[in-house]
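Good morning,

Attaching, inline, the backbone tokens for the sequence recovery test we're adding to the shared suite. The designed sequence is right after.
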């Protein structure tokens, strides 16, 4: 599995409004920046709470990695994304740090969706 597979899963879980699925994409001690100028959220439970507004209405997500730099079990990824829902379109350019788990999956260590 490549780090970019996390994006495919994120888009699928968002469309399915699957909060537990979204949470599974983050390391237990991960950090998530919920929006520009907002304080980072730490830990999977807090991140799931911060993601709840994204599931308030049906939406779809398009996302693609612009660059991936992998060093062993770590990866730094820049991605462009767009979420389309009932209330309109939200888009951004993310900076992400991921780690490969012992099972071979990739999870976010740091996710800053508005970081670029």
């Amino acid at each position: 599995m490549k780090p970019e597979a996390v994006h495919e899963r994120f888009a699928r879980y968002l469309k399915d409004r699957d909060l537990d699925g979204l949470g599974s994409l983050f390391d237990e001690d991960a950090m998530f920046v919920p929006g520009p100028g907002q304080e980072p959220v730490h830990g999977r439970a807090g991140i799931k709470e911060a993601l709840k507004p994204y599931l308030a209405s049906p939406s779809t997500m398009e996302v693609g990695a612009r660059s991936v730099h992998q060093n062993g079990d770590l990866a730094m990824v820049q991605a462009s994304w767009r979420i389309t829902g009932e209330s309109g379109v939200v888009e951004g350019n993310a900076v992400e740090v991921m780690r490969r788990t012992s099972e071979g999956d990739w999870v976010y260590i740091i996710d800053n969706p508005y970081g670029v």
